[in-house]
C-alpha cells in the first residue's frame, strides 16, 4: 500500500528514536531482566510506527520462508563473508582499521554471556534490517513518484543510499572510522540488502544477516578462552 510523505517521515523518525534507544547508555537501568530491552525496542519501535500508519499493511514486509528462501539466506551470507573479508584486506592494506570490541568481550566472556549475546543478535539484526529496508522503500517511493525515475533506476539508487545509515550507526563501534564504516561496512550492507531486493521478504535478509554475524563471531571464538 502507498504511504504519504508525512507517514514515511513518521516511520523514519521512529528509526532515529530506535537507534538512540539502542545506543544510549542505560546505566543502572540495565539489569539481567532488561539487558535485552534495547535490542527488542530497536525492532519493535519502527514496526509499531509502520503498523500505526499502514495498519495490517506492515505485514507485507514478511512472508513465509520457503526452501528457496533458506538457500538464498545461505548464499547471501556466504557471499557477504567473502566480500567483507576481501574489503577488509584491501582497506587494511592502506588504512588503519578499528576492531569490533565485541570480539574481545566475547573472548573473555563466560558460556552464559556468550549464549545471551548471540541470542540478542537476532532482534538487534532484525532492527538493523529495518534500519536499511524502511529507508530503501521510502527512497524507492520518492524516487519513482516524485523524481520520476524508472523503477530500475529507483531500485538502484535506493539500494545504494539506504546503505549509508547502516554504515553510519556503526561509527561508535569502529572508533568513528568513517572510511572503514562507509567502505567495509557499507559494502557488506549492499550485499545483505540483495537478499531483500531479490526476495521481498525481510525474514530472508534478516536470516542472512544473522548467519553472517554468527559465523564471523563464531569463527573468532574458536580456540578462544572462556571466562569462569
TrEMBL record:
Top-level taxonomic group: Bacteria
Signal sequence region: none
Entry's Gene Ontology BP terms: proteolysis
Pfam families hit by this protein: Rce1-like (PF02517)
CAAX prenyl protease 2/Lysostaphin resistance protein A-like domain boundaries: 116-214
GO molecular function: peptidase activity
Alphabetical UniProt keywords: Hydrolase, Membrane, Protease, Transmembrane, Transmembrane helix
UniProt keyword annotation of Cytoplasm present: no
Membrane-spanning segments: 7-27, 39-58, 70-95, 115-143, 155-171, 177-198
UniProt entry tagged with the keyword Transmembrane helix: yes
Protein name: Membrane protease YdiL (CAAX protease family)
Amino acid at each position: 500500500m502507498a504511504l504519504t510523505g508525512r507517514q514515511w517521515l513518521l516511520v523514519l523518525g521512529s528509526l532515529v528514536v530506535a537507534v538512540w534507544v539502542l545506543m544510549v547508555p542505560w546505566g543502572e537501568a540495565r539489569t539481567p531482566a532488561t539487558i535485552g530491552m534495547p535490542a527488542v525496542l530497536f525492532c519493535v519501535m519502527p514496526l509499531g510506527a509502520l503498523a500505526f500508519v499502514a495498519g495490517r499493511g506492515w505485514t507485507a514486509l514478511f512472508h513465509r520462508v520457503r526452501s528457496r528462501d533458506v538457500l538464498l539466506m545461505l548464499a547471501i551470507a556466504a557471499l557477504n563473508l567473502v566480500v567483507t573479508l576481501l574489503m577488509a584486506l584491501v582497506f587494511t592494506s592502506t588504512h588503519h582499521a578499528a576492531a569490533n570490541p565485541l570480539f574481545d568481550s566475547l573472548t573473555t566472556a563466560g558460556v552464559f554471556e556468550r549464549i545471551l549475546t548471540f541470542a540478542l543478535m537476532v532482534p538487534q539484526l532484525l532492527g538493523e534490517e529495518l534500519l536499511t529496508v524502511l529507508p530503501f522503500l521510502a527512497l524507492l517511493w520518492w524516487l519513482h513518484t516524485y523524481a520520476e525515475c524508472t523503477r530500475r533506476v529507483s531500485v538502484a539508487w535506493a539500494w545504494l543510499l539506504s546503505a549509508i545509515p547502516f554504515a553510519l550507526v556503526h561509527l561508535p563501534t569502529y572508533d568513528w572510522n568513517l572510511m572503514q564504516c562507509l567502505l567495509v561496512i557499507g559494502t557488506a550492507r549492499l550485499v545483505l540488502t540483495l537478499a531483500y531486493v531479490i526476495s521481498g521478504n525481510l525474514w530472508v535478509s534478516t536470516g542472512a544477516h544473522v548467519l553472517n554475524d554468527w559465523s564471523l563471531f563464531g569463527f573468532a571464538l574458536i580456540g578462544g578462552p572462556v571466562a569462569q
